[in-house]
Each structure stands twice: as structure tokens, then as C-alpha cells.
Amino acid sequence: MAHYSIGDKVRLRKTHPCGSTDWEITRTGMDFRIRCLGCGHQVLIPRVKFEKAVKAVIARVGEPEPPPK
Fold it and tell me: I need a labelling partner for 27 at 20 to 30 A (CA). Which of 19, 33, 54, 62 fits?
């Protein structure tokens, strides 16, 4: 089980209707609130569903962000 913090940026397996796959975690616990980095839409999803949907962690809080490609 991975550890996620508020402010972490993750990439999900499925794309959002706006075309983005990158999200920022804004709440943790039994449910996760995530905000789309493409359009700003917020979604509240259960922890189990969130952990299955995460493909990769893009950036963690407190670590420098990688340069854009």
C-alpha cells in the first residue's frame, strides 16, 4: 500500500473528459478528493478505487518537480 500526501500529483490510468490524466490530491483518508490539473474539476472517490486507478506518482510534496518534457 503506497503512502499519499495532500499536494502529491498523480497520473491516473483513465483520461478525464478534458483530456488530462494528471491530478492533485487535496484530501486523504477513507476517501480521496482529487483535482484535475487540466480543468480544475474536483472528484471525491473511495481509497480502494483511487489506489487501483493510480498509474504513477508525478511529484511528491517537498520534492522538486521534474522539468517538463
Answer: 19
> Is the residue at 29 inside a domain?
yes
Query: Tell me, what's the pLDDT at 67?
Result: 67
> Is the separation of the CB atoms in 62 and 47 below 8 Å?
no
| pLDDT more than 70, % of the chain | 88
Q: What whole-number distance in Å separates Cα of residue 41 and Cα of residue 34?
A: 8
pLDDT classification of 63: cutoffs 50, 70, 90 = low
Per residue in 40-53, pLDDT (tens digit) is 999 999 999 999 99
The total number of structural domains in the chain stands at 1
Cell triple for 8:
502529491
Nearest to 43 by CA among 68, 20, 67, 69: 20
Looking at the domain assignment, is residue 28 inside a domain? Answer: yes
**DSSP label of 9:** E
